[in-house]
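stage 2 :: seqdesign
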């Protein structure tokens, strides 16, 4: 029987690349995100080349009731989730503390922290019932080092780092692996979202470097997921070769 992977935030970037990678390896997919047309499009594209089952679940991870209702009515055939990739997330704005927008702060905390918790709380009982599972949490280099004007985005990813460690400890007795992935700059829709559609600012994020691609992160996640049952990568920081930490870049001039 095919394994099942649940990927949050599969409508673009890292989540979409993970969907393609895991489908190519024969996993059945549960793909989620708010943009249901994109989920449907991804499902059609993947199934054109890979004979896997795909369930699309459009919901906003910030909406606790929507998350709970979605998983309460999960079809029985989809309840044996082998792998949860908690990937949905975003940065909103890049402003100094005194100028930052409180709505942006709430959006980041509600999505990156609360959303991850809501989905995990819904899925963990299903893994406990199976006496096994693997949860991969998408952190960031921003969850390892605070940088200027990163304030609450960094705080949200520091929280993910702490939750990742806490889950690994508490779920140990249930034979559930927990892995944190912490990328540096990855070229996706992330910067466009952060700078609210300002293409100039978004492009500047990657000027002078060859950034990581969503595929690089999907390959890394897949590596962690396919290790033997007795092996668990706890925590993994990954940057492009021209980046060393949140602050240090070797940019082409
Ligand atoms: P993208 O913007 O390309 O993808 C973000 C995904 O998250 C989309 O599928 C989006 O779906 C989903 N998402 C955002 N908000 C919500 C929400 N409220 N409810 C449900 N889904 C949501 O960015 P990335 O692929 O780069 O980002 C994926 C993860 O990787 C994030 O957690 C990000 O913080 C992290 N990361 C990214 C890095 C980078 O440099 N790109 C580096 C380090 C970490 P939709 O809009 O359809 O809801
Ligand atoms: C995204 C990486 O450094 O742009 O999490 O915050 S960074």
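stage 2 :: out
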């Amino acid at each position: 029987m095919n394994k099942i992977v649940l990927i949050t935030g599969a409508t673009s970037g890292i989540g979409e690349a993970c969907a393609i990678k895991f489908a190519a390896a024969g996993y059945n997919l549960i793909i989620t995100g708010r943009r249901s047309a994109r989920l449907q499009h991804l499902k059609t594209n993947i199934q054109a080349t890979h004979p896997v089952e795909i369930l699309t679940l459009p919901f906003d991870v910030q909406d606790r009731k929507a998350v709970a209702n979605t998983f309460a009515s999960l079809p029985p055939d989809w309840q044996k989730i082998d792998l949860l990739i908690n990937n949905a997330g975003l940065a909103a704005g890049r402003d100094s503390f005194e100028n930052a927008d409180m709505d942006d702060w709430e959006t980041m905390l509600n999505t990156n922290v609360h959303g991850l918790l809501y989905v995990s709380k819904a899925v963990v009982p299903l893994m406990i019932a199976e006496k096994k599972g693997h949860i991969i949490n998408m952190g960031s280099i921003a969850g390892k080092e605070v940088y200027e004007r990163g304030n609450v985005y960094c705080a949200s990813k520091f929280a993910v780092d702490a939750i990742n460690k806490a889950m690994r400890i508490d779920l140990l007795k249930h034979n559930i692996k927990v892995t944190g992935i912490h990328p540096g700059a990855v070229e996706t829709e992330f910067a466009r979202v952060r700078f609210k559609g300002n293409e100039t600012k978004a492009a500047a994020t990657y000027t002078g470097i060859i950034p990581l691609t969503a595929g690089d992160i999907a390959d890394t996640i897949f590596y962690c997921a396919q290790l033997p049952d007795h092996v668990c990568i706890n925590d993994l920081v990954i940057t492009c070769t021209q980046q060393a930490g949140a602050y240090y870049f070797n940019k082409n001039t």
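stage 3 :: structure notes
- The chain has one domain: 4-184+214-238.
- Residues 53 and 105 are 37 Å apart (CA to CA).
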